[in-house]
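Weekly sync notes, structure subgroup
Attendees: PM, AL, DS (notes)

Item 1: joint prediction request from the bench team. They want all two components modeled as one assembly rather than separately. Inputs as received:
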Amino acid sequence: DQQVKQNSPSLSVQEGRISILNCDYTNSMFDYFLWYKKYPAEGPTFLISISSIKDKNEDGRFTVFLNKSAKHLSLHIVPSQPGDSAVYFCAGNTGGFKTIFGAGTRLFVKA
Amino acid sequence: GAVVSQHPSRVICKSGTSVKIECRSLDFQATTMFWYRQFPKQSLMLMATSNEGSKATYEQGVEKDKFLINHASLTLSTLTVTSAHPEDSSFYICSAGSSTSYEQYFGPGTRLTVT
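Output from the run, pasted for the record:
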């Protein structure tokens, strides 16, 4: 049962433009969502999170939007930079220690 | 964020041998450590959760006798893949968590290849 789904395996964006990475979830018990960024042969690093009681959280170039009724969240990166090229994982947490990850979306930012 | 290291970063072993992977939390007291494996182009799959000083909790479908996890201290957890087979070849990643945050701090991962 895939509780967290990232349906786009890859996304290509021009430098300076906006990158929008999408994530859908099925578990309505998630009360916290996180985005992680991963470079090849490295572990994921935490990027940004959002509580289920919020609909937006912004940190510099990164903004996460949450639509609870649609069980959908998205990560916006603007402006996109070549160094943003990586795999982005969406994850949900039910308040315990267990975090469920999506399959990831590979972002390519072209110079 | 906290620094988590893994050793070795890459290991090749013969089928039937055992391999130990270490995960160290260098600047953070990790009450909980997680072990994941990642297949190519797939998500991080949680294998087990270990709390310091107690037995690990394994996810459904993960053989606890094959993947031995020890979390003897707040800074060290080990994963031993016993009697490894080629299908165990994967990227194994550990992470450290705390009771005060949802964030996890990931190690750089270990690429295991079983020949």
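Discussion: Chain A has no helices and eleven strands.
Action: AL to compare against the crosslinking data before next sync.
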